[in-house]
Structure formats: C-alpha cells, structure tokens
Amino acid sequence: MYLYKNVNIVNYYEVKQEAARIKQDFPVLDYFQSLVKSGFLKYEGIHGKEYFFGFLEQRTGSIAVDDKANVWYDHAAGKGGDIIAAVQKFENKTFFESVESLSGSVSEREFVSRQITEITQKIVVEKVSEISHDALIQYLRCRGIDLQDIAPFAKEVHWRNKGKRYFAVGFPNQSGGWVLRSSIFKGNILGGGISIQILGTIRSIKVFEGWFDFLSYLKLSGATDFKAIILNSTANLSMRLMLDILKEEQKVELYLDNDATGGACSNGFIEIAQLYQYCVKRGLATDWDLTLLRGSKKKIRKLLSNLSIEPSNEEKIWKMEVDVFDQRKIYSGFEDLNMFLVGNDGTSDFLLVS
Known about the structure:
The protein is of the alpha+beta class. It is built from 14 helices and 15 strands.
C-alpha cells in the first residue's frame, strides 16, 4: 500500500489512474524548461515541431520534445517517453515517487532533485578574472563585441567538472550562477535563470533573449536609461516574470529571436499584457493565482476561465493597445539582434527605426 502526502492514493489502481491524468494534463515541455531554469540542461532551439535540449557539456542538443504529442526522446540514450518517465530519468525517482511528485506540482515548480544536486556539486569554479584569453577575445570579435563593450558586464570564468577543466566568457545571473559562452560551449553552471542590468534612470524595460543581444543593443543605440532583463533562455520567460514586469508600469520592449519560439513568446507576452490591462481597467484581480494553471497546456484559456471572463469580452481584450512592443521588425531578415549587429559591421540606422 502507498500513501501519498499530496493526494490520497492508497492502491496501485489509483496510482495508475493518477498517472494517466498526469500524462494527459502535464506539459512535458514545461518540465524540460524547468530543467533549463535549474541549470541542469541547456535549450538548443526549435526545429520543425520539436524543441531540443542538451546537457551542458554537449555542443548540440540531443533531447527532443514534441509538445503536441507531449513526449520526449533522448537520441543519445535511445530512450524517451512521457512526463513520468522524464522525472524518473532526470530526478532519479521511482515510478511511484514520480507520480507523487507530479501530483503536487505546479507549472512554475522548481525541480531540485538528488541527481541535479549531485551534478552541481561536481562543478568547481577555479578562477574568475578579467577577459584576457586570446580565444575568448577572438570569439567576442566574431560576435561584433569589443573588450571595452563587455568589460563592465562579464568575466573570464575557469571551472572544473568531473576532472576536466573549461573556460568561457561568464555573465552573472540572478541565482548566483554563471551564464557561459564561448565558440565551443553554451550553458549555465551553479544555477540558471535570468540576469538583470539597470542602466541610469529607468525609462523603459527591455527584454533580451541573450547577453549578446543586450550588448548589441548597447553598441547600436548607446542608450543608458533602461532596465534590461536578459532571459538567457526563453524557458525563463514565465508568466510570473511577465506579471512582475507589468507591475512596474513601464514601457516594455521585446528583443527576442526571429524564430518560431521568439514569435510565440513575444505574442504570448503581449496577450498577457492585454489581459492584465483589461483586469486593471475593470477592477478585476491582477494577483493571479498561477498555481491554478497546473497541468494546463493552454494557460491563457484556463486563466480566462478562472477570471470568469465571458467569451463575448475576449475580442475587446485582444484589441487593447498596451505598452509592450515586439521589436523584432527592427532586425527582420536576421536571426537575432546580435546577427543584425554583425551583419551591419556594428553600424546601422538602428536609432531611426527603433
């Protein structure tokens, strides 16, 4: 007999019933995005209908997630499955422990497992210094960034993992970890999450997908009057973060990648801003209980239902003008803002179009 703290599951039949519900309702993609936030995996992008993730020491992702089918597959290991199989593999849990864990989880859950903790403890930062290695300087130049551009924000980080030594350009994040980039490495150590930079008097909030987009914007615009939120991965653009940004009541500019994920995240942020503004104007609650969105793949639809908003009012919501702007048109034709910088040799009419 198995007795769980979060749900009353007292026999195998009920465990199987709960497992079936979890497999249907809980988005596998949310789980893998949470592993990116924890610094355990890195996000490699979307190809076709699949999202790709990889381990920090891999140069390319090998774990594919099909959001529509709600399954994942590790190409390197030749194994995959549903959300429960993912928790078993990546958190080193039994089937029953995985069901219990997911029964009490929410979409914004932080996954802190024994396996992740053990891996994190094997990483040792040996040296943090000003950037001076020739290979890193050359890498920065290839990204259109000079040492004087990056010096106030980044360091040269040397670390050891499983007896091997590595080094890369390191940017700090809000969890106390490092976002690491070089020509052969892309990942986080000692924790993932967003980074924040405040430049002068805040007149707007600008959201960048990565550090090199932020640095490119600085070089192109020369602006010094905004708060920058560097996502380090679109997996970190949670609904909670969107609400926190909106509560600051500032103009918001989004500088995400020109791909399907960047478009979906930008449009999703604008929709949340429209719904938020509608609630403010109608005197409805804006401290939304996001735990009620647990296990939902269509979070905005469920949020509308939770707020008791009539379908007849939805058209008004999606027509509302908000101070959240998708800026990707500025660098249309380029993968991202950094590629726009490189493609224009560091000069452009950026200020005229932004």
